Amino acid sequence: MFxxxxxNFGTLIRRLREEKGVSMxxxxxxxxVTYGYIGNIERGEESAREDRIQSLAAALDYDPDELLAVxxxxxxxxxxxxxxxxxxxxxxLRAQV
Length: 97
Prior knowledge:
Shape: elongated
């Protein structure tokens, strides 16, 4: 993940957390990480694994696919679909633009 992606992801996490009125400690506890990890994510100093992004999405009531996209990642089930027929899927996606 590039620095700008980390920053955008972290900014979104902070905004969602603050909108819910949840502290970093509360969010961290709810997904099983340290509050320092949440701080690093919010400052764009650390990237999150897909499973942690899924947990963040659930804790913050946010669409997991959208949160993965902001983080520059793609859900594993979507990757599997793409890999089943990359040429056809790529053409389909390009036609939507």
